[in-house]
Design a protein that fits this description.
The complex is a heterodimer. Chain A is mostly helical. Chain A contains four helices and no strands. Chain B has one domain. Classes of the chains: A mainly alpha, B mainly alpha.
């Protein structure tokens, strides 16, 4: 049955990328590279793992099992939630790490210092920062 | 026809090993953003594990819990990032 092999392939890809995320989180030297491993790999792996659940649900629905369609729909909702929230969280963590002063490993200069209009009163007075950011 | 129960329980066990790998980073991360990255990774893996668990037992309520957990962990990640960033909220 080619459908079962497809499900096994999906499970294999998903598990491979999730294990890769854990290993990369341990092995990489830096916050930003760890963020690559810990966020992108889990997003890609969860697409395939939840995709296999959706495939099984659709197959159960094809065999006149109404529980399968509900499983597939709710799994798709969980996948949409992961796909919407995971990159936004990663971007927020990266921005917070950069602004809290964590440098990349072996970095000499920080070319991503704040944009020129912000540099005047950026470190000294904290009250100016939220007003500047409000326009973004 | 594949054995859904055994297959997905094996998947959940493998995901638990990934959670342990990420937990090592949370425990010995040198800086605070490292720990936040580890917690974010654990959140995503736990969501996928809940979906696989719901498939193994054919229970839709586990997947609903996974959806709510995804949205709440997103809020907590944003809050932690805002806290690390400093400044006013």
């Amino acid at each position: 049955m080619i459908f079962d092999y497809l499900i096994y392939v999906f499970l294999g890809i998903g598990l491979f990328f999730n294990v890769l995320a854990g290993v990369g989180l341990l092995r990489f030297p830096d916050v930003y590279t760890r963020l690559h491993a810990g966020t992108k790999c889990t997003t890609f792996g969860s697409i395939f793992l939840i995709g296999s659940v959706i495939l099984i649900g659709l197959k159960l629905w094809w065999e006149k099992d109404t529980n399968g369609s509900v499983l597939a729909l709710h799994s798709a909702l969980a996948l949409v939630a992961i796909l919407l929230t995971n990159p936004v969280g990663a971007h927020a963590i990266a921005r917070a790490a950069h602004r809290s002063g964590v440098k990349p490993v072996r970095a000499i200069a920080d070319h991503l210092a704040e944009s020129p209009p912000l540099q005047t009163g950026e470190k000294t007075d904290k009250k100016q920062q939220p007003q500047e950011e409000g326009g973004k | 026809m594949i054995d859904v129960y055994t297959t997905y329980l094996t998947v959940v066990i493998a995901l638990a090993l990934c959670v342990i790998l990420a937990l090592v980073r949370v425990i010995r991360g040198p800086t605070a953003p490292d720990r936040v990255v580890g917690v974010d990774t654990i959140n995503t893996i736990v969501i996928v594990g809940m979906v696989a668990f719901g498939m193994a037992f054919r229970e839709v309520i586990y997947i609903d819990v996974a959806i709510v957990y995804a949205l709440l962990s997103f809020v907590s990640t944003l809050f932690l990032a805002k806290y690390l960033e400093g400044g006013e909220f």
